[in-house]
Amino acid sequence: MTTSLNKPPLASGPGSFGDRRGGGRTPTAPGGTRRAGKRGGRTGYAFVTPLMAVFALFYLWPVVQSVLSSFFTWGLLRPWNLFDRSTWQFAGLANYRRTLSDPDFWHAGANSLLWLVLFPLLVVGISLVMAVAIWHARRWSVVFRTVFVLPMTISLAAAGVIWSFVYNPDAHIGVLNAVLKALHMQGTLDVGPLHLKTTGQWLADPGTLNLGFYDLRLVNVFVIIAAAWAFAGYGVITFSAGLASLPQELVDSARVDGCGPLQVVRHVIVPHLRQPMRIVFVVSVIFALRTFDIVYVMTSGGPGTDSTVLGLLPWQEAFAFLTSPQAGQAAAVAVLMSAVLILLGFPYLKSMLPRKESR
Amino acid sequence: MRRNRLTVTALYGSLTAASLVWMVPMVTALAISVLPIGQTRNGWWHGGLSQLTFANYRDAWSQGLASYVVPSFVITLGSVAVSLLLGALASYAFARLEFRFKRLTYFLLLTTMIVPVQIILIPLLPWLRLLGLAQGNAQYLGIILVHTAFGAGWAVFMMSAFFADVPEELLEAARLDGASHLGQLRYVVLPLALPGLVSFAIIDFVFVWNDLLLGLTLLDRDHQPLTVGLANLQSPHLAQENLVSAGSIMVVLPPLLLFIALNRFYVRGLFAGGVKG
């Protein structure tokens, strides 16, 4: 009891919460009935238990199973079971060793790395520019904002399908190729290490970027563009919310001081949006590493393994061929992936735990 | 003054241009879906209003998508309902009550926001089989509970934020009238936090409706949702752009309509997750 007076209530929701609570919890607050009304540990458990039961059965326990089963050899036709020793074919670290020495894993890892870099940059870049332009525009801002936010509601499966039309290699169907054809820009483009084929095979063979030790497959870029299209609305919403709290006087006084529009953006708006930018960036990173749907629909990881990402790998290993005993290795991939995400996402998660001061 | 007007024109001009480019994918899908396939193959942009047809939708519907619609609605509405019910109960405790391990449980719930679904995916099917949730209509219950578990972080994060905004004085008044915690939740917190509940319901609806991976993995052919149906329709070898486009519009439409009707709540809900922190 005494400790909870010193610490801000941690697990109590974000935001405006701290101040409201402070009032009721000051040491001068009457104890007795009032405190008994507010706390009441047993009621707390009773209220949390139903959700926690579902959470434990369908999330925590599967996570534990994933981790444990990644040390065994098993397949979905003969699943590993903690309570059935006959299903235990212990593999030690073999699944991890095999994964880490599997070129497919590193290939998928490289593609995921490209996602990890390019996707957040595209999302933050596009949505920042759009949000600031819309904020400047004032009139029609609702219409413009809606245009950029709407794709957010579209499932990534559908977004992938829709973009496949745009990328369609037939210049009579695909807009991108029709435009390039009309502009007579079909061919190949070689700029330094970049080898881009604008011959229309965007999801099959659009070329490579030579990094010296590795050829990045550009097909990933075209999948990432589609995903960024579907996701940028999140950034536009978040940045618009941030801009709504930007005091107009700040902008005006900067103008009076002789700042041009670009300088206002650089010295007033961007610093004001630092926190929203961080959030959009982190959420995009998480999203980029989890990616499954849009790759599955657009390329299924192909051609070959050119666009396979880490999110696709466990599924392919465990489910694409049900007879293969690769589920343990698939679990190992999922565990490695999650470890990376937890490391990257931990600061974000911590920031979501409520504090006294929000923002 | 003239320079100023030039800037404004340039701003609106580039915003309009960007908006038009942004709409190209949607317009493409929409146009292909309402034009005969013959016209699509000669450039849908040459198509005229006189060619408008709903035949593609009829064909997409009768050639398989129809059977995916009911599962999509059952799974989505079921998940939203269970998440709302269990989430509201738990969020009340997180926002308004003290109990041990509160911080730990809250943190565990939040991990669902960053950990990929893939971490539960592989052992999940055998586990659901063991629980008897892998056959017939029991599959619906299985996937609904998985969606509830995986959405628990968002549910508690959003709803407890909204519940926390309810003024303490109102709860105290209810307490003085002898209301139990359940009564306070039911008669004070829920009505006042209704906009927040709607926000969460919409976001959860969009999220569950749009899921592909769980539906693809956990359910048999007769219980899979529309997103899976669309993914099955999409095959580069079968040139059926007309059906695929109609299917994509059908998948997109329910969340889109919900968004347009309740835009305010949707944005508000995302604010709750986006701006704070």
TrEMBL record, chain A:
Which sequence ranges form a coiled-coil region, renumbered to this chain?
none
Localization, UniProt = Cell membrane
Q: How does it sit in the membrane?
A: Multi-pass membrane protein
Q: Where is the ABC transmembrane type-1 domain?
A: 109-348
Transmembrane ranges, per UniProt, are 44-64, 113-135, 142-166, 221-246, 279-298, 330-349
Report one GO cellular component: plasma membrane
Q: Which InterPro entries match?
A: MetI-like, MetI-like_sf, UgpAE/MalFG_permease
Q: Which UniProt keywords apply?
A: Cell membrane, Membrane, Transmembrane, Transmembrane helix, Transport
Q: Does the keyword Nucleotide-binding apply?
A: no
Q: What is this protein called?
A: ABC transporter permease
Which organism does this record belong to?
Streptomyces albiflavescens
UniProtKB/TrEMBL annotation, chain B:
GO CC aspect terms: plasma membrane
The biological process GO terms on file are: transmembrane transport
Q: What is its main location?
A: membrane
> What Gene3D superfamilies does the entry give?
MetI-like (1.10.3720.10)
Q: Which residues cross the membrane?
A: 12-35, 68-94, 106-128, 140-164, 185-209, 243-262
What species is given as this protein's source? Streptomyces albiflavescens
Q: Which family does it belong to?
A: Belongs to the binding-protein-dependent transport system permease family.
> What lineage, starting at the top, does this entry show?
Bacteria, Bacillati, Actinomycetota, Actinomycetes, Kitasatosporales
Specify the ABC transmembrane type-1 domain's residue ranges. 69-262
Q: What is this protein called?
A: Sugar ABC transporter permease
Where does this one sit in the cell? Cell membrane
**InterPro entries recorded for this chain?**
MetI-like (IPR000515), MetI-like_sf (IPR035906)
What are the record keywords, sorted?
Answer: Cell membrane, Membrane, Transmembrane, Transmembrane helix, Transport
Q: Provide the topology term for how it sits in the membrane.
A: Multi-pass membrane protein
SUPFAM superfamilies listed in its UniProt record = MetI-like
PROSITE patterns under this entry? Answer: ABC_TM1 (PS50928)
